[in-house]
Design a protein that fits this description.
The structure is a single chain. The chain has 45 residues and is mainly α. 96% of the residues lie in helices and 0% in strands. It is built from one helix and no strands. It is rod-shaped, with a radius of gyration of 20 Å. It starts with a helix and ends with a helix.
């Protein structure tokens, strides 16, 4: 039972850190997309 609890805590911590990583990557992609959009708008003018 104790080993199960340790494994559950480890799995939860990995899941939480993975969510933060994916969230950060999503923000980076969003920022890159906005930069491309801004550059395209500037090129139109």
């Amino acid at each position: 039972m104790r080993m199960f609890a340790i494994l559950a805590v480890m799995a939860a911590s990995l899941t939480i850190s993975a969510c933060n990583t994916v969230s950060g990557a999503g923000q980076d992609v969003k920022a890159a997309g906005e930069a491309v959009s801004d550059t395209a708008e500037d090129a139109k003018r």
